[in-house]
Amino acid sequence: SAVHAASLVDPLMHSSELLQLLDISLSPSVIEYVVDRVSEAVNNALASGGVKSFTWSTLCRSRFSSWVSTVLSRAEITLPTVLVVLAYLDRAAPELCITRQDWAHERVFLGTLVCASKYTNDASLKNGHWAICTGVFGRRDIGRIEREMLEVLEWRLSVCERDVLAHHQGLMRAAGEVAARQRPQHQR
């Protein structure tokens, strides 16, 4: 029987909702959904870590969003890996306690991304390549960020369908926004 390229098992073993998710593209709207989830997790962690007067300006968010998009593109990340990133964010969020806002959003995103990429791919980027993709962090920084995230996740990297489906509605809404914009005006 055929296997699904993203899961390496027969598609009949997956729910139709999961297969819907695997069919969407990594569009700007989907990336914004990921940025929103990272922002939510980090902003809550900063608040619980006692960071006073934290402000997440529109300019900071825009720069972060652009950086996320650049990293995903340079690292050639696929949607299945992004789905694992979202599951790791959900798992890590209650455990995060961030006491400094310097690079906090970037570190949390990158930590989940590196872990997800290494978990889902037989051949993954080395830390030196991740450093090039980020344009911000060095090889040692990448190693430290990865280890910190692994500790937050308590080294539990497995992901089940339920973990991914928690984002079905939000991702389908984000994908639908793209589809609605791409439809010719007379079909609306």
From TrEMBL:
Domain Cyclin N-terminal residue range list: 59-158
GO molecular function: cyclin-dependent protein serine/threonine kinase regulator activity; protein kinase binding
Gene Ontology CC: one annotated term: cyclin-dependent protein kinase holoenzyme complex
One Pfam family from the record: Cyclin_N
InterPro entries, per the entry: Cyclin-like_sf (IPR036915), Cyclin_N (IPR006671), Cyclin_PHO80-like (IPR013922)
Protein name according to UniProt: Cyclin N-terminal domain-containing protein
